[in-house]
Amino acid sequence: MCCLITSVVLLGPRIAIVLWWLLNMGRWETAFDTFLWPFLGFVFFPYTTLMFVVVAPRGNVVGVDWFWLGVAVVVDLVSHGGGAARNRDRMSRSPA
Fold it and tell me: How far apart are CA 85 and CA 57, in angstroms?
């Protein structure tokens, strides 16, 4: 069960990025000037990348959009840090 949840959390936003990009390339082209940022977002910060395309379809972030981007950054950081913390706990419990 833990593997299924981890797979959905890690692959879910990446699958959404690929599907959304295939279905609506124009929105991605207007949100990002170059291919580099969405690619790096796909690899390292998928939730933030998705949120940026949602809140800034023209590439500019204003007002409350900063809050939603902040939430996405926190979700990305927690998904990276949570895996490390869980792995550390698992290693400390293993027999020597």
Answer: 35
Distance from C-alpha of 20 to C-alpha of 25, rounded to nearest angstrom: 8
43-57: string of b/e by CB count within 10 Å (b at 16+)?
eebbbbbbbbbebbe
Distance CA 2, CA 94 (A): 18
Residues 41/48, Cβ–Cβ less than 8 Å: yes
For the entire predicted model, the pTM comes to 0.74
- Per-residue pLDDT of the chain (96 residues), as tens digits, is 566 666 666 678 898 888 888 888 998 999 998 889 999 999 999 999 999 999 988 888 999 999 999 999 999 999 887 665 566 666 666 565
